[in-house]
Amino acid sequence: MSTLNAAALFRKNDTLAGIPLPDAHEFTAAPATHGKVTSVVPDLRINVEEKTFALNGNTLHVLEGIDLQVRAGEFVSVVGASGCGKSTLLRLIAGLDLEYSGDIVYQGNRIAGTDLGRGIVFQEHRLFPWLTVEQNVALAFSATNVPTDERRNRVLEQLEIVGLRGFERAYPHQISGGMSQRVAIARALVLRPKLLLLDEPFGALDALTRLKLQQELERLWAHEGLTAILVTHDVEEAVFLGDRVVVMNSHPGRIKRIVHVPLERPRDRTSHAFQDIKADVLSDFAQVEVE
């Protein structure tokens, strides 16, 4: 198991042999990850100058000055208090909302809508109760021309990967909440996206199920060779899963700082190093007002 390289954050105007060093919100030296190699080239460039909503005749400033780059194969956690705009940011990356000023570029192309190469998992599993597990996952193919036999093979393969073989003919009311969330993850992955977006996917689950699914998500991320962005309000979850933790401020949502997590995978939550990083991130929320 390789150890992630600790990456220093450089000042914006520093130079090395006349070459400017990266800003704190840009990528730094690529860390080694569990069973995979992370590219030093940014796969995703996020530049949101401003995102607003109209509310009761007023303009609500939700995001401002977001500048972030994500490498291929990297796992980035975004953490912040409720109302800081982190879920809105994820929707912009997914292409579900295009009304903002700035540019979000994925693999060289400006995001201009949803795309099969970007999968998303929400907090609610959003399964159709009248469909079986297998049928719910197969819905991902509804806008594709993938042949029927290949669809079934890929669905069964994905259910095997998330540990749900044997439950393909079960209905959502016959399985647990954690299993339902696995179905949602399988549905997001069955189209083989390279970028997985997760909007507090375990927020509604009990603590023990959440811990187990965090481990499963880490395994799937490594197995599938994914780039992943997780939005969460759970600091421990953010540190456990992320190569970097993006800490956001509120009103409007801005990146306050980025914390690198140079720890071996799988991570030991009880270690002093893990607890130190967790405490460091938590210090940003010590006096956050309840919203």
Q: Give the number of helices.
A: 7
- Percent helix range: 25-40%
Major beta-sheet overview: 6 strands, mixed
Q: How does the helix and strand content classify structurally?
A: alpha/beta
Which residues form runs of ≥5 with pLDDT under 50? 1-35
What Rg do the Cα atoms give?
19 Å
List the helices and strands in order.
Answer: EEEEEEEHEEEHHHEHEHEEH
Q: Could you give the order of strands across the largest sheet?
A: 10-11-12-7-13-14
Q: How far apart are the termini?
A: 41 Å
Q: How many β-strands, per DSSP?
A: 14
Report the sheet-strand fraction: 25-35%
Question: What does this molecule look like?
Answer:
The protein is an alpha/beta fold. The chain is built from 7 helices and 14 strands. It has helices spanning 86-94, 133-138, 148-161, 177-189, 207-224, 235-241, 272-282; strands at residues 15-16, 19-20, 32-33, 36-37, 42-55, 58-71, 75-79, 101-106, 109-110, 118-121, 195-199, 227-232, 244-249, 254-260. The strands form 4 sheets. The protein has a 6-stranded mixed β-sheet with strand order 10-11-12-7-13-14, sandwiched between helices. It has a 4-stranded antiparallel β-sheet with strand order 6-5-8-9, covered by helices on one side. The chain has a two-stranded antiparallel ribbon with strand order 1-2. A hairpin with a 2-residue loop joins strand 5 and strand 6. Helix 6 (235-241) packs across helix 7 (272-282). The longest helix has 18 residues, at 207-224. The chain is globular and about 50 Å long. Residues 1-35 have low confidence and may be disordered.
